[in-house]
Amino acid sequence: MDFDFPLRKIIHVDMDAFYASVEQHDHPELKGKPVAVGGGSKRGVVSAASYEARKFGVRSAMAGYIAKRNCPELIFVKPRFDRYKEVSQQIRAIFFEYTDLVEPLSLDEAYLDVTENKKGNPSATLIAKEIRAKILDRTGLTASAGISINKFIAKVASDINKPNGQKTINPEEVISFLEDLDIRKFYGVGKVTAEKMYKLGIFTGKDLKEKSMEFLDQHFGKSGRYYYHVVRGVHTSEVKPHRIPKSVGAERTFSENLSSEIFMLEKLENIAVELERRLLKSKISGKTITLKIKYSDFTLQTRSKTLPYFISKKELILETAKELLYQSALKDSVRLLGISLANLNTEKKKEVEPKEEISVQLRFDF
User: Fold this and answer.
1) Which CATH number fits domain 247-344: 3.50.80.10, 3.30.1490.100, 3.40.50.2000, 3.40.50.720?
2) Is 109 a catalytic residue?
3) pLDDT tens digit string along 131-144?
4) pTM for this structure?
5) CA atoms within 13 A on the CB side of 36
6) What residues correspond to the site Substrate discrimination (predicted)?
7) CA distance 26 to 77
């Protein structure tokens, strides 16, 4: 078969346990030890974990007390986001030595389109090796990379040889690679979706590929079309140097559980002030306000409302957040509140869906 869309040379670079690795690099006494960034306070949550800590089941977003229970020798360190941003900028500068088509996903990962690059190097695989070597030389940190014809496959591939490795999926390998791939490793398939797919008899890419568009639409809604295409190697999203956020938010975890809406109003006001600051800094406004509530048992609830006009001021944000808070009774005491704004004035028209009939030209040097 032939792909009848342009094949690109995409690299996905993902730093290895970035925050924790920065701490271990800056504090040599932490090297080789289980380290968690954040999570040290009574109500703290782990932001990142070193590979030594991950062996004990410590993961990001895990409550600190659970992490400590899993790994009694765990060392908690306070996050230093200014430092992480500084190192991230060093890494990003390396990317720009090769291409201006760099799309950061966060401080520790990015997509690069090197189809045409500043070095005139036809091999994306060799470019990825050079970039990883430069990152190690200049920052002392290791990175992993995935290389393939589109962002989706490059993202999946970067996780295969972690840490400090890379994986290239050549054009002629794409279909067989996706067919053999465990459905849990498909980017965009979370735990809940994976469980649903298992119940439908979908365990691998091959199983997914056997399902019709109608079947996937029926069971997964809009995501069904995405799954139908990516398992066939079709993902036409370009590397966007200026990635547009889909939402902006702020949240707070409390040192003590809050049991009454009255006690939450002051917290919501502080959150609204922070959200307004972020919106004004980015010159963004939006229409859809979402209130995030995390209860003491860690269950999560969201309540949303879409307004007929764009807002960015804290007064209007807070007014709507209060309305959402009182929308229905709380089911338990609350440990976290958050407010986010979506349906932003930065959003563009959605990409045109790729063609369903595809064919592949295999002569493409990686």
Assistant:
1) 3.30.1490.100
2) yes
3) 999 999 999 999 99
4) 0.74
5) 32
6) 19
7) 12
